[in-house]
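Ticket opened by: R.M.
Priority: normal
Category: complex prediction / small molecule

The reporter submitted a protein together with 5-amino-5-deoxy-1-O-phosphono-D-mannitol and asked that the result be attached to this ticket for the collaborator who will pick it up next week. Submitted input follows.
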Amino acid sequence: MCGIIGYTGSNCVKDILLDALSLLEYRGYDSAGIAVNEEEKKKTEIFKCAGRVSDLKAICDTKQITATCGIGHTRWATHGGVNDGNAHPHQQGKVTLVHNGIIENYRELIADYDLQDVLRSETDSEVVAALLNHFYQGNPGEAIRKTVSKLKGTFAFVILFEDQPGVIYSIRNVSPIVATICKEGAMLASDLTALCRFTNEYFVVPEYHILELHKDCILLTDLQGQKVEPQMLSVDWELNSAGKNGYPFYMEKEMMEQPDAIRRTIEGRIMNGLPDFTGDGVPDELFTNCERICVVACGTAMHAGLVAQALVKSMVHVPMEVELASEFMYSDPVIDEKTLVIAVSQSGETIDTLEALRYAKRQGAKCLSIINVKGSSIARESDYVLYTSAGPEIAVASTKAYTTQLSVFHLVVAKMAMLRGAYTEKQAKAFVQELQRVPEVLETILEQRKDIHVIAKKILEAKDLFMIGRGLDYSILLEGSLKLKEVSYIHSEAYASGELKHGPIALITRNTPVVAAVTQEKIMSKELSNIKEVKSRGADIVLFIKKALAGDLHQEYQLIELPDMQDVFMVFPTSVALQLLAYYVSSDKGFDVDKPRNLAKVVTVE
Ligand code: M6R
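Result attached by the on-call engineer:
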């Protein structure tokens, strides 16, 4: 959470910082600010405000800013309300900094160093600026070392010292920082989105290392002062794939990209019609030696795990749990060297998932991760990684990351089923063949989006909405319901249809909107009975139904017919249809679809 950028070079820093902050705004959009190092004036000037980057831009446009070195921040508030004073950067004496993370012992630091009277904000971050200033005697490295030795928590700090013009310092623990040097100068950011318009080469700043950006060089040292060579990585994202490409919102663009994203993700992992992870360096033994599987993930990524769990149970017959990463290590889970832990994350930076992975590794488990962002923390710390090739996902609501995660899971499940003798080679080939149809099927459902828009218009005014389904449909509706609530602010709950009569059906009154998914033939008749039960209580029902199962149901219900696939693949068209529903409700209500209130794309606080 929180977007960070720093630049020092020969170009005017203002535009570089503001452009980068616009790209990073999905990490937090409560307030924005920049600090520029005016070498001639020998001072660091700050411009900041509560609100969006566009508000900050309006302020900066009225100022004459010629500096070529500066830092910037977009905030997702943790400590202290959303107001100008709590916006970053924070300045104390000669020190100006921006921060991503949480300093857990900030109260003790205020008391121990008697900082109460100098603080002007309610943030934990300003306490660190004051502490750095306390230790600063003209040697930035020494002040940074002394300061971080006192801190408990997670942090990525980017710091300017007023008497070190043109130089940016940074240090981090857990919270990410990537950096690069290119012809424009040296720069760092909380994530690659802000850098890839300048270069494809970058490195991840190691934890507890001091980074110095100079106009023409980068210096990385460990806490003992030893020089460390940065490990350069390259990214294949292009600038235009991080833009909106003519769509009004990133969410729409990203939904439309799903067919290609899935094609890219599965191609190269299919050899002679069978799943193959040789190119990823994932050995078959990973799938044969484990006695149980445990998925750790949050939000949408966790929902992808639920689909995989249903597949593994029915196709591979191996015990599998899906754990909310934030609850995982506090619940004393049974994890050992016979457990395969699969961490799923778009960003690869979700701290709950990262901590769950670290816990699992300490217990001796083998860890595989399914990640979208190359070189991210979870990817780096996993034993094996299967990258999704979704490209940059900017909208807070996850869409293409989810369906690409599902496609990887389908390959993993087919591989396991074959390796463990639950599937013959012929069955595995047929399964993979159906998976290869997914992109074209999604193209069909995306072409049908106008029909879903019509349904969306009918629920614009709803306060509550329910989604019901059984088996895989229920797993998909959990995700569909999360999507709807996060972008439309309609209270939406997904229920396993059979559970309704045990309580939730009490919530159904006349005209309550209910979205029902019917894509699984073997449980269809039971599902239809449950739908009847809510219809009898006056609910206003829309069926998202597999075309082949629709029969004459249109006489009784409003239907969205989904293109036919084998049942275990119906998760793909159903989830895309539900994404479209959420999107149209949000955009028709006039909301900022890509930046729903209170949320951020990358969740790096526990
Ligand atoms: O980056 P991650 O996949 O680890 O993020 C996990 C969740 O924060 C994320 O999926 C969140 O639930 C999305 N906003 C849902 O659309």
